[in-house]
Predict the structure.
Amino acid sequence: MFVVIFLVTVVLWATLQHFRQRQRLQQIAARFGGPKPHWLLGHLPEFPADDIPGIFERMVQLHEEYGQDLFNWGLLNDHMVIVSSPENVEKVVMAKQTQKSMIYEFIEPWLGRGLLISAGEKWFHRRKIITPTFHFKILEGFASVFNREVSVLVDRLSPYADSGQEFDIYEPISLYALDSICETSMGVSINAQHNPSNQYVRDVKRMSELILLRIFHLLGSFPRTFWTLMPNAWEQRKLIQRLHDFTDSVIHSRRQQLLAAPEQRKDPTDEDSLNSKKRHTFLDLLLNVTVDGRPLSDADIREEVDTFMFEGHDTTTSGIAFTFYQLAKHPDIQEKLYQEIVDVLGADFRTVPLSYGTLQSFPYLDMVVKESLRLLPPVSNIGRRLVEDIEMNGVTVPAGTDISIPIFVIHRNPAVYPEPERFVPERFSEENTQRRGPYDYMPFSIGSRNCIGQRYALMEIKITVVRMLAHYRILPGSAMCQMRLKTDLVLRPDKGIPIKLVLRQ
């Protein structure tokens, strides 16, 4: 009898707590937009469970119907606040302390607590260590990698130009970006463009697929319990072990090389190293750095190398592919950009090596890339978890709340971008740029946790676009107008980007 009374008391107490919290949340939700939630499932019925692109499309529609700031109910009292108004975006990204939201926990088994996921003192110290890696003189060294790998890409695509065959440009760009990121981050050649069936190539691709499946799986919300019992979780663990083994072997090999050659054990960011012609990799920096007189452990280094690989592969792939998508749809803009390439580079425009410095001479290229990143930002959404209470819309949003910032929606605000669906590079001319606020355009996020590698990404995108347009005209494929988008942590085309190539004479 006592057990029954105890259980009933526990149930009643839990029910009372649930309704008290529900009442508090409803007071907050009243200050935000959104459809009426189901009493149990919240807004989950709003999203088509078997249509991942449909989930993304419905989220965009909700902003069109209910405004810039939304309150999204999940199961029971689970919830998320979605903000795209500049004043609320500023409050979140400029908060003294925030953490990454729960969705980033899905990639923690692979990336560890690297720069993307870590918080507090660890994040601050790692950011301070890694920031010098993206000094423009180090980026100059990376340019030689991009020049070499994009030449491989141009050659690999020539059969499509010869045959006039339609093909998906996303896949070859993904292999090109993987070759580039492996060279610049670890100093190893995996030759993904020549050998797409390489085990590491297949493992990276499959990891991205499993992350996507987990995000949209009902049990994926329980990372420590139910998810570990799913077949996908077992497969993921095997993949992670192989990926970690590969990175560990590269770290060990390079550490031994540095120990055997003391003259190479220099900080790549000191003045002498920056002025030398030797190319340094991201891994070299991490191996040479010390914290409180001690080198980073192999586990620490692997976290950051894997994070750099993850952040620099899929995002750059989408950035390049979406730029080609826009150029294929707008031949007049493509030809104007081609003419700039010829004018700037001269008679040897197809072969002259491109550098970080050279790219500063392409103002129209800069506008084209920025407008592409506006319409189709590779990171279409960023998540934060509040560490402290924040006032929004006249109500206090408590610490612990997950906040979503939909960059895709922010970039299509008609009050800032008239006819926002149109591709208009001139939006980013010098005079037009001055008319926007700092929270109206943020393809690389903003605030203290913005993308540390944005100059790296822009350089790779621009070198790729220049080299491709120097050799080919890009035409739209037959199904291009039907392209749908999906997003996990990166915005991607659901079924690729079909194009045709014509060799320029």
User: Anything to note?
Assistant: Residues 298-329 form the longest helix (32 residues). The chain has a mean pLDDT of 90. The radius of gyration is 24 Å. The CA atoms of residues 210 and 232 lie 7 Å apart.
